[in-house]
Amino acid sequence: MVRRLARGCWSAFWDYETPKVIVVRNRRLGFVHRMVQLLILLYFVWYVFIVQKSYQDSETGPESSIITKVKGITMSEDKVWDVEEYVKPPEGGSVVSIITRIEVTPSQTLGTCPESMRVHSSTCHSDDDCIAGQLDMQGNGIRTGHCVPYYHGDSKTCEVSAWCPVEDGTSDNHFLGKMAPNFTILIKNSIHYPKFKFSKGKIASQKSDYLKHCTFDQDSDPYCPIFRLGFIVEKAGENFTELAHKGGVIGVIINWNCDLDLCESECNPKYSFRRLDPKYDPASSGYNFRFGKYYKINGTTTTRTLIKAYGIRIDVIVHGQAGKFSLIPTIINLATALTSIGVGSFLCDWILLTFMNKNKLYSHKKFDKVVDTLGQHMGQRPPVPEPSQQDSTSTDPKGLAQL
Fold first, then answer.
1. Structural domain boundaries, residue 131
2. Under a CB-based contact definition with an 8 Å cutoff, are residues 258 and 320 in contact?
3. From CA 342, how far away is CA 347, in angstroms rounded?
């Protein structure tokens, strides 16, 4: 049995299959066949070639340069603030922070003082509760081993060697966001697609005084690179007062999708704005940072003003894709389209041989086995005589009439 099976497999290995064309006059099956072909053709013509533009060679992720500059003046309760004070970092780049609220701890000097009550396990009743030399990474300094009265009230905390007085939540609070919605942000951006050797900047006008008068507007001036801070926050769907108080991160997304088969003037950026930090996650939302301003009193004692700043951080994100006609992807997608049209025939063959009433008759007409004399000399299967036309007609006189 094994030898017979091996001989059969060896013989079948040398078989050759060639398609046989049968015309089946069935309107339902013909309708399904043409509809499948039509859907495949529409998919490739409309989606693949028109929407996806698969006849083009493409490049994603352009090389990009970004320069930002903020202008504006605002006021707190007792002070006028200009750009040099509320913008960090001052040189401008793809990320810029605009301070809208600060907590100030003035006149800090190096010395010893009570630890902040906000630090874990900082409260005490006696010196035994404070271990000298102990360092809490969430605290402000190194403990001296003494339990001392707090800045206010009857509580006591462990004494630390640090910048004193420590930041304890009772610092002066200044809100800078009153005029902040009218701040303007200049965003200069230029891109380069190295594969196509294409470069372009996003300032459309060449006039020297253009930037002095324009402000971005989606309808009247869509290519002006100057944005109002209030406009950016509004387009991101946020409340400005709430955002200025707690801080947050807003993304300015610049999308350069360019069809390089068209003229250069058709390649222009599209803008979108959205909040990047998780708004509804209390542990992760908001944005703040600390920095100090140092000076000396009487030329000897180093003193600093500690500032905890809350602000709106602007992240400029550039992405895009460029495409240009290329013969190779065009040929590949055309070949794929022509090949995929054959799916209709495969589907109809499956219906024909599986679900039709006379599927056995169709199968008999579709598949034939022919053995030539060369196959006999090679020791293959003996020829199987095909039924003659008369036999076929006598056994199934209506068979050909149904094809």
1. 116-165
2. yes
3. 9
Per-residue DSSP letter, 154: S
Of 370, 362, 348, which is closest to residue 35 (Cα–Cα)?
Answer: 348
pLDDT in tens, 338-351: 888 877 777 777 77
91 neighbors 79 (Cβ within 8 angstroms): no
Give the residue carrying structure tokens 């190295």: 194
**Domain co-membership, 98 together with 210:** yes
Whether 254 and 359 map to the same domain: the answer is no
Please report the DSSP string for 47-79 in residue order: IIIIIS-TTEEEEES-EEEEEEEEE--EE-SS-
Question: Any residues with CB less than 8 A from the CB of 118 and at least 6 apart, and which?
Answer: 168, 169
Query: What is the Cα–Cα distance from 388 to 392, expressed in whole angstroms?
Result: 6
* 350 and 397 inside one domain: yes
CA distance 11 to 274: 68
Instruction: Please name the residue that has the structure tokens 């602007």.
Output: 314
If asked whether residues 157 and 277 sit together in one domain, one would say no
Binding positions for ATP are 69-71, 184, 288-290, 308
* Rounded CA separation 158/132 (Å): 9
Threshold 0.85, pTM exceeds: no
Question: Are the beta carbons of 367 and 56 closer than 8 angstroms?
Answer: no
CA–CA dist 300, 1 (Å, integer):
106
Compute φ and ψ for 6, nearest 5 degrees.
-65, -40
292-307 tens-digit pLDDT: 999 988 878 889 999 9
What is the H or E stretch that residue 111 is in?
Answer: strand 95-114
Distances (CA, A) of 252 to 156, 183, 204, 269, 374: 48, 16, 19, 12, 75
How many other CB atoms sit within 10 Å of the CB of residue 76?
Answer: 18
Nearest one of 259, 270, 278, 279 to 317, comparing CA atoms: 270
Longest CA span, the chain: 125
Q: Are 224 and 251 in contact (CB under 8 A)?
A: no
Annotated binding site: 69-71, 184, 288-290, 308
Tokens coding 337: 């389209």
How far is C-alpha 159 from the geometric centre of its chain's CA atoms? 49
Domain count, the chain: 3
Q: In DSSP terms, which residues pair with 274 in a beta bridge?
A: 251
Q: Kindly report, residue by residue over 244-282, the tens digit of the pLDDT.
A: 999 999 999 999 999 999 998 888 899 999 999 988 887
